[in-house]
Amino acid sequence: MTTAQTDTPAAAMAQPAPPGFSAATDFEALFHGAPAGYLLTMPDGTIVAANQTICTWTGRTRADLAGTSMLRLMPAGDRIMYLTHAMPELDNSGSLTELSLQILGADGSRLPALLAASRFRTAAGGPELDRIILVSAPERRQYEQELAAALRKLEAAEADRQRLLEEARYDAVHDSLTGLPNRVLLADRLETAFDAAARDGGQVGLLFCDVNGFKDINDALGHDAGDQVLRQVAARLTDALRNVDTVARYSGDEFVILVSGSVTALELELVAARVQDSLREPAIVDGTPVQVRLAIGSAMTPVLVPPGGVGVGAGNVGAKAELARDLLRRADMDMYAAKGRA
């Protein structure tokens, strides 16, 4: 009986090697002729063996590479990445699936490559080595660079958008000439002050200021000079107050000062005196001293109580808006009375 021959992989491997075949020789040829770069290194990166492809890429001989650190084959940035990412990963898990980096050529050129690595022990009780495979990947590196550049542009565009949005928000609640809070922000600060005073059972105090003779300054020196005066008045008032207080440009040459926290009539008078004293020195307009004085009116809310308490409360939004209008109206009237007394 004739038995048919079965051509299986096991059977093929069991067959005698063809004449002239040497596993060691052919494996070495495969090792050195592969299109990928192969390295054997110590865990600290010291090169034990390198194939011819690595030698070709770096312009160095195998003798030159043996005993040197593979880190010397990388630019500084990739060197740091290998030290901080690849080496700890190999120490922890024994393998590294993929790392994108560059290999330095002898002429200073940079070859983009993908690195994979695994750690093994040469024999029982023998030293550990890292098998490292490097595959040339110029398209991958270019894609990553283009992607990174696109992300940077997106981040820059988003930063610009956020900056413009913040500027728009700021401009919406600040006076463009003096940089002070405008009526919108003043109204918001008043609501906050009412709520705080109601919690403490206190009063809110406010000063209404008008620059005396401002029309005469405009007529005599021009509107640019008038603008300079307003900016200097704004700066003086700001410096005379605490950081928690608010000075707002209400309109034209009128300024409103909201004293933060519960305040007494005497404390409000002291703030008014400090504000008036801040303008004792003349403003300087194009080298010319201009004496500026303010007419200042004051007003205070009644003692405020929390909603549901006995007495005047800040209440809802409508009640707070009415309270603000009344406070501003009375301070404005007192300011005009002060003008009449001057």
Automatic annotation (TrEMBL):
Residues 140-167 form a coiled coil. The keyword Coiled coil applies. It comes from the Bacteria. Keywords: Coiled coil. Residues 202-342 form the GGDEF domain. InterPro entries: Biofilm_reg_signaling (IPR052155), GGDEF_dom (IPR000160), Nucleotide_cyclase (IPR029787), PAS (IPR000014), PAS-like_dom_sf (IPR035965), Rev_trsase/Diguanyl_cyclase (IPR043128). NCBIfam families: GGDEF (TIGR00254), sensory_box (TIGR00229). This is Diguanylate cyclase. The lineage of its organism: Bacteria, Bacillati, Actinomycetota, Actinomycetes, Micrococcales.
